[in-house]
Each structure stands twice: as structure tokens, then as C-alpha cells.
Amino acid sequence: LRLVESGGGLVQPGGSLRLSCAADGFALDNYAIAWFRRAPGKEREAVSWISYGDGGTHYANSVKGRFAMSRDNAKDAVYLQMNRLTPEDTATYYCALSSGLRLGPVPIPGRRSFGTWGQGTEVTVSA
Q1: Which residue of 47, 73, 89, 123 is most buried, as measured by CB atoms within 10 A?
Q2: Distance (Å, rounded) from C-alpha 54 to C-alpha 90?
Q3: Is 112 helix (H, G, I), strand (E, B) or coil?
Q4: Distances in whole angstroms, Cα of residue 62 to Cα of each of 45, 66, 71, 84
Q5: Which pairing describes strands 9-11 and 121-125: parallel, antiparallel, or unpaired?
Q6: CA dihedral 48, 40, 92, 56 (to 10 degrees)
Q7: Spacing of C-alpha 16 from chain mean position
Q8: What pLDDT band is residue 53 in, cutting at 50, 70 and 90?
């Protein structure tokens, strides 16, 4: 299983970016999917996740109302639309999969629940 992220870059505060995560050679239907980020000097944290089964989409409080996660099963891809970015959003962003994992809004999923990771894409928010 291989995931490929793209879309990171340098953006000014208040700007937007759209990250993509493509599944290479397999379908995403049977997986829970999450976007994590790791800021410099901090632990990796989940920012958004889609549950297996009901497909419920949930967000960490730090990004709620600014980020939107979506999924395109026809393209086997997920996206993270990030708006109103702040310097605190600077991080390496990763998508991750977990087979058959059902997730709700709480608890925030930990990285150990996900076994397949992309290589990450860097987002820098700076003036």
C-alpha cells in the first residue's frame, strides 16, 4: 500500500492550500483515513479524519471551521482544503489509513491506530 501526498508549499497567513493524498494501486473504500501533522518540535497530531463505515468526517478543534476534508472514491484520493491559515499551521502533513476503523469526533485518533502513511508534504505559513 502506498499513499502519495501533494499540495504543500509556502503561503501567507490568511491564505489557503489544498492538500491531496492519492492511493497508489488500491481502493480507499475499506479504510478510515486521516490527515495528521507534525509541527517542528511537536508530536504528530490528527487534524481531520473520516471513519470507515458511515464516512463521518471530524476535525480537531484547532482546525474546525477552517479545514475541510473530502474523499473521492472514484479517484481513490482524499483532500484537505485549508483556509485562513496561520503560522501555527506550519507543519509536515501526512495522510494515513487504517483498515476498517470506525471513528467518531472523539477521542482524537492517535497515530498508532494507523498503519499506512504517506511520505508527508510540508506546509509553511509565513509572511
Answers
A1: 47
A2: 31
A3: helix
A4: 11, 9, 21, 12
A5: parallel
A6: -10
A7: 15
A8: confident
Cell numbers representing residue 33 in the block: 483515513
Residue whose C-alpha cell is 482524537: 108
pLDDT-above-90 percentage for the chain: 82
How far apart are the C-alpha atoms of 108 and 127, rounded to whole Å? 31
Per the rule left: phi > 0, alpha: psi between -120 and 50, beta: everything else, 11 is beta
Beta bridge partners of 125: 11
- DSSP assignment string, 46-111: EEEEE-TTT--EEE-TTTTTTEEEEEETTTTEEEEEE-S--GGG-EEEEEEEEET----SSSPPPG
**Prior bond to 107 cis, omega within 30?**
yes
Question: Between residues 35 and 106, which one has the greater pLDDT?
Answer: 35
Residue 61: predicted pLDDT: 96
- Which one, of 53, 19, 56, 14, lies nearest residue 36 by Cα? 19
Instruction: Return the biggest CA–CA distance within the chain.
Output: 41
